[in-house]
Write a structure and sequence with these properties.
The protein is of the alpha+beta class. It is about 25% helix and about 30% strand.
């Protein structure tokens, strides 16, 4: 992910009814973009270290965002981005975490497909609050399969 991708990421996020702001993303984190052959953004994702200073939520590496343009959804791009993020985390730790709105069935299905398990439910975790429901804290122990994932994502 480069600064030149930020506007396309903002536009994609708005088109999905979200408000991602890549200028707030940190340094030293996994930031990925996928583009089509013409250089148009297909999707993006990130993972980073997070210490929420929360009694329930541990400090650790978190998958913290994945968005795919509507016309590219259900083609495996979110899975590809997730596998690449898991590889990145596996090079640094043996555990990975994720926080998902309990009503986000697509994200929950994606995380379940990768073996994430529910650890806790709450209306907020750290600084993340969930409107109209609760959030789920998910966890996955990383193994050899994540470390050997092959990708040419840049």
């Amino acid at each position: 992910m480069r600064r030149s991708d930020f506007e396309a990421i903002r536009e994609l996020s708005r088109s999905l009814g979200r408000s991602s702001e890549p200028s707030r993303f940190g340094d030293n984190e996994c930031q990925l973009v996928l583009k089509d052959d013409d250089g148009r953004l297909i999707g993006w994702a990130r993972a980073s270290w997070w210490d929420p200073a929360d009694e329930v939520v541990p400090a650790g590496y978190y998958l913290s965002g994945v968005e795919v343009a509507r016309e590219y959804q259900h083609r495996g791009y979110a899975s590809l981005l997730t596998a690449a993020r898991l590889k990145w985390v596996a090079e640094r730790d043996t555990n990975v975490w994720c926080i998902v709105n309990a009503r986000n069935s697509e994200s929950l299905a994606l995380q379940a497909a990768f073996g994430f398990k529910e650890v806790a439910r709450a209306t907020h975790f750290g600084s993340v609050s969930f409107t109209g429901g609760s959030g789920l804290l998910l966890h996955k122990e990383l193994g050899e399969e994540e470390q050997t994932f092959k990708t040419d994502l840049r």
